[in-house]
Design goal:
The complex is a heterodimer of chains A (237) and B (425). Chain A has 237 residues and is of the alpha/beta class. Chain A has a single domain, classed as P-loop containing nucleotide triphosphate hydrolases (Rossmann fold), CATH 3.40.50. Chain A is 37% helix and 18% strand. In chain A, α4 crosses α6, α4 runs parallel beside α7 and α7 packs parallel to α8. The longest helix of chain A is centred in the C-terminal third of the chain and has 17 residues. The chains are: A alpha/beta (237), B alpha+beta (425).
């Protein structure tokens, strides 16, 4: 299924490594010292479980990986490209082209329908639009169907969806157009156990189909077994 | 280009989503734009109606006075004549080959506050207003008998007069008069169609009738025994000694200034000849200050409602943090997010303009017959002129300008946005 996609990526981007970070430090205004984040080395298609208690900088690390925060020191390299050298506009474009993001909750643009939320990345990135088969709408419907969002809800306002459905729509948006990296910030914390397991299963299965690397942040260590690697924050920092 | 289209579609969806809150803001804006545009429109219309109070008349000739004074008492029936002109002077003008027609008028009496204009059949034939429109009778006929009176449309409506009603004129102006020409009542012979000019607010009798009712009134009040009875009045022949003024139509308009100068320098008696168009625009210039102030006030109303719009958008900004975080995470640039505010603001302004046009248009369409009927104000529906389009076009531009405030703050904040809403890491 994803052979074509791979060829596109192989021609433009080093396929071997998805994420490489070195000696990352970031300090929020008013914070006394900048904590050092552990180095990450994640290969394409592999998944990383990131855990740790609150306040250990999990979201900060995701912000640095997403290119929305600029590190005080250290380097981030995504798909072989150093993020540090890029201007903010280029980082935005890179994120639109190569990244999917899932937040803890309130993931959806309230005034767009579920379907429009899913196709949003294709409207921000022509690369991701080009990767959809045969067009963004059909691909989005297929994803929503895979993620068991009832068809009757696709055109409706997202505020009418349950939390579980909202998170699955968010997952569909992150997977849309087969980005190489998905950043998920505790997307299951508002879900019950059944929903949580199903969500994780679907996300990882679909990510695997498009050889997408998932970085999954959670404080629920029980989920760690689903992932290739795990990394603890805060414990030794 | 696709980014602009995306921003437009997001802005549209966002506006629709917040329609309940924004509908009120849009209503405020609509009303203020309607006010602004309406005042500008009425300004033009009233000016038009004002300057077309009289047309086709080349000169107005009266006793020596200022041109505004002469215009006011002859055309607008406001104020009084300083003096009369002799009948012989009028006759001399009639002999002048350059003068095509003359309408003599004599003023001084009133009917329940409405001016009595004594004239002849030339008034009905020659007097024009608006775009060279002639007077028309809605009912009856122009006066023929000595004691016939023709009523303006406004007089007939307000006094509820019909043809053949009996009317008693009063001596002098003013709404209440203690000296009435009760001996010699008049009969309504005709009622003029509404014109939207002061013509509607006057009653018309013949020059002879004016003389007849004033026999025995030389001292200012009727001396019993010296005034005429109806029978005796009919038996006499009347030639006026003097008239108040005359409207002049020239055979060739190019002679206007020549004739005007000659009349002003007349050696027979001191005369003033004025060009009604020039006098009207001078009068409008005096009144223009007021309507300009009105326009400025309504412009401030629009500015106030635009500030209200921004206040609402800034309040909504707090609610939009999540949405901005999502769009940022999906790779939307700060510029795109900031542009949402500008697009929304301009779209609201455009909607308000469209609503204002509809509202104003239907108000004028619905009210203009009533306004003409009740107040004698003629306001017609017409296409907007250039100035009004510019004023209307300024509304979205102003909206764009004020939208820069939320747009720039959003742009600045979303540049510094961390992962998720705030940097809660």
């Amino acid at each position: 299924m994803s052979t074509e996609t791979e060829q596109i990526q192989a021609s433009s981007i080093t396929p071997a490594s998805a994420i490489t970070t070195r000696q990352l430090r970031f300090c929020w205004p008013g914070q006394a010292s900048a904590p050092l984040f552990p180095d990450i080395e994640l290969a394409r298609g592999e998944h990383l479980f990131l855990h740790g208690p609150s306040g250990t900088g999990k979201s900060t690390l995701l912000g640095l990986l997403a290119g929305m925060l600029t590190p005080d020191s250290g380097t981030v390299e995504l798909l072989g490209q150093p993020l540090n050298g890029m201007r903010s506009g280029a980082r935005d474009r890179f994120r639109a082209n190569h990244m999917g993001v899932i937040f803890q909750q309130f993931n959806l643009v309230p005034y767009l329908s579920a379907l429009a939320n899913v196709t949003l990345p294709c409207r921000l990135s022509s690369l991701r639009r080009a990767r959809t088969e045969p067009n963004p709408d059909t691909a989005a419907m297929a994803l929503l169907e895979h993620l068991a969002v009832p068809e009757s809800h696709w055109q409706r306002s997202v505020t009418e969806l349950s939390i579980g459905q909202q998170q699955r729509v968010a997952a569909a948006r992150a997977l849309m157009g087969a980005p190489e990296i998905i950043l998920a910030d505790e997307p299951t914390s508002a879900l019950d156990a059944d929903n949580r397991d199903r969500f994780l299963d679907l996300l990882l299965t679909l990510a695997e189909q498009s050889r997408c690397s998932v970085i999954f942040v959670s404080h629920d260590r029980a989920l760690a077994s689903h992932f290739h690697h795990q990394l603890a924050l805060g414990g030794d920092a | 280009m696709s980014k602009v289209r995306l921003a437009l579609s997001l802005a549209t969806a966002s506006l629709w989503y917040r329609r309940k809150v924004l509908a009120l803001v849009c209503l405020t804006l609509t009303l203020s734009v309607t006010l602004l545009l309406g005042i500008q429109y009425l300004r033009t219309e009233i000016r038009q109606s004002f300057t077309s109070t009289i047309s086709g008349t080349d000169l107005i000739v009266g006793a020596r006075s200022g041109q505004l004074n002469l215009l006011m008492y002859t055309v607008f029936h406001i104020g009084d004549a300083t003096n009369n002109i002799r009948w012989s002077t009028f006759q001399a003008m009639e002999q002048d080959s350059r003068i095509d027609w003359l309408i003599p008028i004599s003023l001084g009496d009133s009917y329940r506050g409405f001016r009595v204009v004594s004239t002849n059949d030339q008034f009905f034939k020659r007097f024009q207003y608006g775009n060279d429109q002639a007077l028309e009778l809605s009912r009856g006929e122009w006066f023929d008998d000595l004691f016939d009176v023709v009523l303006g449309a406004g007089v007939a409506r307000q006094m509820n007069h019909q043809i053949d009603d009996e009317v008693v004129l009063s001596h002098g102006g003013g709404r209440t008069s203690f000296a009435n020409h009760t001996d010699l009542p008049f009969r309504v012979s005709g009622i003029l169609s509404p014109t939207g000019t002061p013509v509607d607010q006057a009653v018309y009798i013949s020059l002879e009738a004016m003389e007849a009712i004033h026999v025995g009134w030389e001292s200012g009040v009727g001396i019993p025994g010296r005034t005429l009875s109806l029978e005796r009045a009919r038996a006499r022949d009347y030639t006026p000694n003097s008239i108040t003024a005359a409207f002049v139509g020239l055979s060739q308009p190019i002679l206007t200034f020549q004739v005007q100068r000659q009349l002003n320098q007349s050696s027979q008696e001191p005369l003033s000849a004025i060009l009604p168009g020039v006098a009207l625009s001078e009068l409008w210039r005096l009144m223009g200050q007021f309507e300009r102030a009105l326009l400025a006030i309504s412009a401030f109303v629009v500015i106030t409602s635009l500030i209200g719009l921004i206040a609402v958008l800034l309040t909504l900004q707090a609610q939009r943090q999540r949405e901005i975080a999502i769009l940022r995470a999906a790779g939307a640039s700060p510029l795109l997010i900031a542009s949402l505010y500008s697009f929304e603001c301009v779209a609201l302004a455009l909607a308000a303009c469209v609503f204002a046009l509809t509202l104003g248009g239907s108000a004028i369409y619905g009210l203009s017959p009533w306004l003409l009927e009740q107040y004698g104000i003629q306001i017609s529906l017409r296409a907007l002129n250039r100035q009004e389009w510019l004023l209307l076009g300024a509304i979205p531009v102003a909206a764009l300008t004020v939208s820069l405030l939320p747009a720039i703050t959003t742009w600045w904040r979303s540049r510094k946005l961390g992962f998720g809403a705030a940097g809660d890491g």
